[in-house]
Specification:
alpha/beta; Arc Repressor Mutant, subunit A; PTS-regulatory domain, PRD; 5-stranded mixed sheet; 22 helices; globular; WH-like_DNA-bd_sf; repeat; transcription regulation; PRD_sf
């Protein structure tokens, strides 16, 4: 198999759900035709193993429909056939984790043999890894018999590992998966994190934080505790300067008991500085644990100001769920200030999804961030911006359930005024949620970007830079109806809320109709004005 085919097969095998051809095309930066050819080559190899093939599930994507046992066997055979090797990014991750967690010295010449690469390739990997670590103010140096080691503050090293693992591997799961369910990067991590120790820590975490509802924060606490344990085992500890910061934090009996049990279970020798350090990190990751040293006035100012600003900019009536939004947002802002002031960064695995699917909300929050930064005098990173946006997005979804969506749309038609108006009328008839704001011809295309519209329907292909476009027939067909329905579903993030307020005029008319149907009358005397 070609290298690219192996990469494709690894990608599909590591996924627990179908992946669209388009997504694979974008991921590998090749055409969809190339992806289909690679799938064909991969299936030829899979046929020799007498297992399931890569199939295209209509409307979902490609997937290998095999059991976990069969997937394990496929992975095993790929490895035995000499195909299963680490790619450049995977080698860099493995090298980083081996230096961070391995109890044995790490020598580059041994890694060359392990990776089956040349010295020049290994040198290139190291250059890129060193460049990646430079933003954390960390270097990798070769220290004689001790092999490769990190040079930098231990506090920075731990935060770097926390950041890299979150970004390149994803949040650790609160249930242990079989090897076949793990991605390649997750499998790399399991080389350095013992399964039994993972389960032991997981059970401790579940016991002490069983009342914590936020699963993501549980995962973050689990990951950082693992990093803390394995770095301590290598003899790396934070300096005495950290003790001063930890002493400023509130005491929390539950967290202290959790740390004591971790120390006992892993048979660690830990000083008070390290215990306080981990306690503070957990408190800053735990949204239920609010630090009283935070200026609660500033927290309220930020919360109220942010709610008001986002509603004004987006036009979404968040005030209809004000109490619920305020409570969740206030708690998050409070813990966020504690985190960012202490240099703790929480990675958001759905950052890009929030930016893409709730772009208007994200942009509004992002625009307000300078006001937060001026109050707390600390930079707010985009991961924190996305967490703030999530609170608004959640309320937005609740509002949508109680509301209807409208899509302000432009109709482009080059078949004359009569046909254009027919198309616009047909769209309104079949889809009441489509609000046609303008019908234009080919000579007026420049107006599209100037109009307050969300979608564009055209009878012929045109170039539109910032609005979703669907090409339809001048006279809408059955196929068009299906396509339009899917188009609206795919672009529902562009819809605008239309709150279903009670129409009292309509209600009054209904009452009159009921009275008339029952041959009744209403007189002034029937009302009590006293």
């Amino acid at each position: 198999m070609k290298v690219r085919t192996i990469k494709l097969l690894k990608k599909i095998l590591s996924s627990s759900y179908p992946i669209s051809i388009k997504s694979l095309s974008e991921y590998f930066n090749v055409s969809t035709r190339t992806i289909q050819n690679l799938i064909g080559e991969a299936n030829e190899y899979l046929e020799t193993l007498n297992y399931g093939l890569i199939k295209n599930i209509r409307g979902k994507g490609v997937f290998i429909e095999v059991s976990l046992e069969e997937k394990n066997e496929i992975i095993k055979n790929i490895f035995l056939d000499g195909y299963f090797f680490l790619e450049k990014e995977e080698r860099e991750l493995d090298l980083l984790l081996s230096i961070a967690f391995s109890q044995e010295p790490i020598f580059l010449n041994k890694k060359e043999k392990e990776y089956l690469v040349s010295k020049s390739t290994m040198d290139d990997d190291m250059r890129k890894l060193r460049k990646k670590l430079s933003k954390y103010d960390i270097e990798i140096i070769s220290n004689g018999k001790y092999g490769c080691i990190f040079e930098g503050s231990e506090r920075s090293i731990r935060m770097m590992l926390f950041d890299v693992i979150n970004k390149e591997i994803g949040t650790v799961e609160l249930t242990r998966k079989t090897r076949a369910q793990l991605s390649i990067n997750q499998q790399i991590l399991t080389k350095y994190i013992d399964d039994e120790e993972f389960e032991m820590l997981l059970n401790i975490l579940k016991e002490f934080f069983k009342n914590m509802d936020d699963e993501m924060y549980k995962k973050q606490i689990l990951l950082f505790t693992l990093i803390w344990v394995y770095r301590l085992r290598k003899g790396n500890s934070v300096g005495s300067m950290s003790l001063e910061k930890m002493e400023e934090s509130n005491q929390n009996n539950e967290i202290e008991e959790y740390i004591l049990l971790v120390i006992e279970s892993f048979e660690l020798e830990v000083n008070q500085i390290e215990s306080n350090y981990l306690k503070f990190i957990i408190m800053s990751l735990n949204t239920e644990s609010l630090d009283n040293s935070i200026n609660w006035v500033n927290t309220q100012i930020i919360t109220i100001g942010l709610m008001k600003y986002v509603e004004e900019v987006t036009g979404i009536p968040f005030h209809k769920k004000e109490e619920k939004l305020y409570e969740s947002l206030y708690n998050h802002v409070s813990s966020m200030i504690s985190r960012v002031k202490s240099g703790v960064q929480v990675f958001n695995p759905i950052l890009e999804s929030i930016k893409n699917n709730y772009s208007e909300i994200y942009k509004a929050v992002e625009d307000f961030v300078p006001q937060i930064e001026s109050l707390i005098e600390v930079e707010i990173l985009e991961s924190e911006v996305s967490f703030l946006a999530i609170h608004f997005s959640t309320i937005y979804m609740h509002l949508r359930e109680e509301s209807s969506l409208i899509f302000k749309s432009v109709v482009v038609c080059n078949h004359g005024i009569a046909t254009s108006n027919l198309l616009a009328a047909s769209l309104r008839k079949w889809f009441p949620e489509i609000d046609v704001v303008a019908v234009i011809g080919s000579q007026d295309l420049f107006l599209i970007n100037k109009l307050d519209a969300d979608l564009v329907f055209s009878t012929y292909p045109i170039e539109v830079s910032d609005k979703p476009l669907l090409v339809v027939d001048p006279v809408i067909t059955e196929d068009n109806l299906v396509a339009i329905k899917e188009f609206l579903m795919d672009n529902n993030q562009f819809g605008r809320l239309k709150i279903n307020n009670s129409d009292y005029t309509e209600m009054f008319n209904e009452i009159i109709s009921v009275i008339n149907r029952n041959n009744q009358t209403v007189n002034v005397a029937d009302y009590n004005f006293s």
